[in-house]
Design goal:
Helices cover 34% and strands 25% of the residues. The protein has 330 residues and is of the alpha+beta class. Helix 7 packs across helix 8 (190-199).
Length: 330
């Protein structure tokens, strides 16, 4: 079992002021609630600090955590969560385990008194917080510019030290799952919080989350595709003809459809999407990371290939399996 190194044993990551952080942290990270956030059996407020993932799961969904005894090591609790993910999603679990193996080397502790920039994506839980219960940013992710010297994850040691082992494990898993979300085009962490909290319960252990339910969770939270604006690409769903790709998109949601290709633009109704922004999006970055013969997707103009210079019709791939590029309306 690997171990999470403690703040006192790690290199300090010092940034001079909060405004400097704001220009560096480009992705959402884990948040905590802290203050008089709970009531005991007598109705007396209880001061506590917990990650938002777990707090909203308890308050809004009535879920109970199942991560073992309070004194169980953080690493054991993380393993429990990743083992549950492996039951329902072994391929994703393998990817996330790879990131977990390098978490310590890619993580730095914020310990100079600055605060991470607040990310306002916590949703409806903010509306039901008690008067003296507040939300704070405990971790953030960034795009390292100077590998291997710049950290990928930044954790505020002040909040880490206030968390119990359940929430520490949850915060690490949140960051790992959100890393997967960001590469798929996520711009907020609502789905990450749901999946993190789910893995902290025994719902998978008890068979409450079957394949169909889990598939729905992935779809609603966009963990089954790569996205750009309303477009979704499903790499694991390949088709050999336009009719099948069109039917697949139509079955996702009402009015979901394939786009047209017109010159250097993809067209959906009266909206057009140019290749410049498309190719730099997570969806485009994913396609361009593939071998050249796999950068192909179905549209109403047949198969289209994404090149560095733009879109092109790809007649030579018409009989080869390719995923559908669906414009999904939710």
């Amino acid at each position: 079992m690997r171990s999470i190194s403690l703040p006192a044993l790690s290199l300090a990551f010092a940034l001079s002021a909060a405004p400097a952080l704001a220009g560096q942290i480009v992705k959402n990270g884990g948040a905590v609630v802290s203050g008089e956030c709970f009531l005991d059996d007598s109705g007396t407020p209880v001061v506590a600090t917990e990650i938002v993932d777990f707090y909203e799961a308890k308050i809004l969904r009535g879920w109970d955590l199942a991560l073992g005894e309070p004194t169980e090591p953080v690493e054991a609790k993380i393993e429990k969560m990743l083992n549950r993910l492996a039951v329902v999603d072994p391929e994703r679990a393998e990817v996330i385990r790879g990131w977990y193996a390098t978490f310590d080397s890619e993580r730095a502790w914020l310990r100079n008194g600055a605060s991470l920039p607040q990310v306002d994506d916590v949703g409806e839980i903010r509306e039901v917080l008690p008067l003296r219960c507040f939300i704070y940013q405990a971790a953030g992710q960034r795009i390292p510019e100077n590998l291997p010297f710049d950290p990928f994850y930044i954790v505020d040691v002040r909040w880490w030290d206030k968390l119990n082992n359940d929430s520490k494990a949850g915060l690490v898993v949140h960051e790992l799952i959100y890393r997967d979300g960001v590469r798929r085009g996520h711009t907020q962490s609502v789905g990450t919080r749901f999946l993190t909290a789910l893995l902290a319960t025994d719902l998978i252990d008890r068979g409450q989350i079957g394949p169909d339910v889990y598939k729905g969770i992935l779809f609603r939270n966009r963990f089954d595709s790569y996205t750009y604006n309303g477009f979704r690409l499903y790499p694991e769903q390949s088709f050999t003809n336009e009719a099948a790709a069109k039917e697949f998109c139509a079955n996702l949601t009402v009015d979901s459809q394939l786009p047209y290709l017109s010159g250097s633009y993809l067209l959906v109704d009266n909206n057009n999407f140019g290749h410049t922004a498309f190719k730099t999006s997570p969806l485009g970055s994913y396609l361009l990371s593939l071998p050249e013969d796999r950068r192909v997707f179905w549209t109403l103009s047949g198969t289209v290939k994404l090149n560095i210079g733009g879109f092109s019709n790809s007649d030579i791939y018409q009989n080869a399996p390719a995923p559908a590029l669906c414009y999904v309306r939710l």
